[in-house]
Amino acid sequence: MLGTVAKGKIIDENDNAYYVQIDGTTYELKKQELTQDEIPKIGDEIEGFIYDNKSHDREMTQFLPFAQPDQYGWGKVTEVRPGLGVFVDVGLPDKDVVVSMDDLPREKERWPRRDDRLLVRLETDYKDRIWAKLADENIFDQLAANFPNGMNNENVFGTVYASREIGAFVLTNDYYLGFVHESQMPRPMRLGEQFKGRVIGISQYGRLNLSTLPRAFEEIDDDAQMILMSLRRRETKTLPFYDKSDAQDIKRYFGISKSAFKRALGHLLKAGLIEEDKTAGTITLIKDPEENTDGEE
């Protein structure tokens, strides 16, 4: 059956290839795709992975694919075809394998894109067509490692293995299971998407709760960072400036315009990092993001 490792007998050869017969069908095995140490000859039995290439010619290769019927492997998406599904590279020299649209999310915005990656195995149907089948949740449960304590607010890198309305289920690069709630992403995350996020807690199901939204201080522009720095340097963490301060005083102290100052104040107030006392005409640092990188948000 196509899509499996099989043995056959070499019945012919030329300068570039051997011709291997299995159950009455002949497969071409390119000599450059041999991996065994011993050079075979006509009449020998030889083993390799059998498939049909992009031109529908029958081939054998000893370059075994990452994924096989009894083995899952990560495949990179090479093409998206709306009426069919997505093609993934599983390591075959001249063939990408399709994940059927029936196995993909209903919403096209959640479909994988080129260079996303999927954990798949191979399956051959009754028409001898080879398909890539997505790993289900049980497989990821088996792959998962236990995450250590104290990961809150740590950055993680991962891959989405299920994208649903409620959020995205992910496997981190350290093989920890995680979940990104739909409120913690700026847009729906794609199946197969690789991303950077941060830990914001632990779910009742033993997964890391993650966020892909930037931390408050990561959204702050240079002017706001400068104001933060000035506040940090004050023992009282307070400065005699607010949104109604004189433009010339702002320019002399911060070197920026009043409009830029007000815009920066707005970012800091929205992020909950400062408070403004309009009566006293001051701003005060109440939450320093650089002192909260290891704590809870």
Notes on the structure:
This protein is mostly beta strands. It folds into 4 domains: 4-61, Beta Barrel (OB fold (Dihydrolipoamide Acetyltransferase, E2P)); 73-135, Nucleic acid-binding proteins (OB fold (Dihydrolipoamide Acetyltransferase, E2P), Beta Barrel); 151-211, Nucleic acid-binding proteins (OB fold (Dihydrolipoamide Acetyltransferase, E2P)); 217-291, Orthogonal Bundle (Arc Repressor Mutant, subunit A), CATH 1.10.10. It is built from 4 helices and 18 strands. The chain has helices spanning 137-143, 222-233, 247-254, 258-270, and strands at residues 4-13, 17-22, 25-30, 45-52, 58-61, 73-81, 85-89, 97-100, 117-124, 130-134, 155-164, 167-172, 177-181, 194-202, 208-211, 238-239, 274-277, 282-285. The strands form 4 sheets. Strands 1-2-3-5-4 form a 5-stranded mixed beta barrel. The protein has a 5-stranded antiparallel sheet with strand order 8-7-6-9-10, with no helix packed on it. Helix 2 packs across helix 4 (258-270). The relative contact order is 0.09.
Query: In percent terms, what proportion of residues is strand?
Result: 35-45%
**What is the class of the largest domain in the CATH system?**
Mainly Alpha
What oligomeric arrangement do these chains adopt?
single chain
Q: What summary fits the major beta sheet?
A: 5 strands, mixed, barrel
What number is the mean pLDDT?
92
Q: Which structural class is indicated by helix and strand composition? A: mainly beta
- Provide the CATH superfamily of the largest domain: Winged helix-like DNA-binding domain superfamily/Winged helix DNA-binding domain
Low-confidence sequence ranges: 292-297
User: Per CATH, what is the topology of the largest domain?
Assistant: Arc Repressor Mutant, subunit A
Rg estimate, integer Å: 29 Å
| Proportion of helical residues | 10-25%
